[in-house]
Design brief:
Helix content: 25-40%
Strand order of the largest sheet: 10-1-9-12-13
Order of helices and strands: HEEEEEEEEHEHHEHHHHEEEEH
Number of strands: 14
Largest sheet: 5 strands, mixed
Shape: elongated
Amino acid sequence: MDEVAANIAKSCHIYLICRRPSQSFAPDTFQYVNGRLNGHIRYRVLGEERLEPFVFPLKLVDGAERVGLSDYPHKEVRTLNANGEVVRRFPAFAMSPGIINVPDLVQLEVLYVGQAYAGGRRSAFDRLKSHSTLQKILADMQEKMPDDEAVILTFEYVPYQIISSFDGTATDAISDETDSRRFISILDNPLTDEQQICLAEAGLIRYFQPKYNEIYKRSFPKNDQKILNSCYEVDFCGLIVEIDTSEVGYYLFSQGRAPAVHHTAQFDLFDTEVRRSFFTFGSGENAFTMPGVISPS
């Protein structure tokens, strides 16, 4: 990474492991004529081969004299100098979004939501350098999803906003100063950065219900559970977590969520026990969720 990207990466503590079809260049249609590269991107969906045409300008710079295609599986275009040395590489996966924007290639299925913080010293990139669940997902993909590739997105979450609402028609409203003191207390005792990251992760997990967050529930680090415990007692009535991928052109989806570039997850957590159930990630007979609180629909 360059310095700018590296500084941004340090602030990215939330990551999503996603999947989409793996792409390659079709060698029989590949051409470079008059400074323009054209041909087809090849990929498969459930074993069915699909081709998408492309054309875009490609300048020969930095001593490059010709353009070539890498050997099978033809995953990248290369510019070469007079000695046949590679000057630049252009991978097939970089064609979409941008040059090719068909739904198959710009829609990412969310498989896993995770976070890394460690007191602000650890970014998502640091975590992913040694990540057993990522390795398990990649191994699973080779066996069960051979036509797909993993795409990892990392996110920075800025400090949260507090939203308050008042209902002048409520018949059961608190008549004394208890509610005002409670609101002031929330302002005077802000969430820690670590709690904010924890809540963002929990909200995204509950919203997308990713397959691998359930499968590997028991592998969650114990220290993360301690962080969750501190969030149980936080005095708030609801949580809204947003995630936006419009700038990069990807549409996120899961089995319970339709593809979109902007998702807003909203949860009613007024009751303490409801809030506690919000952080329960179990499955099957071991799962515990309060009725009507978390819904994938």
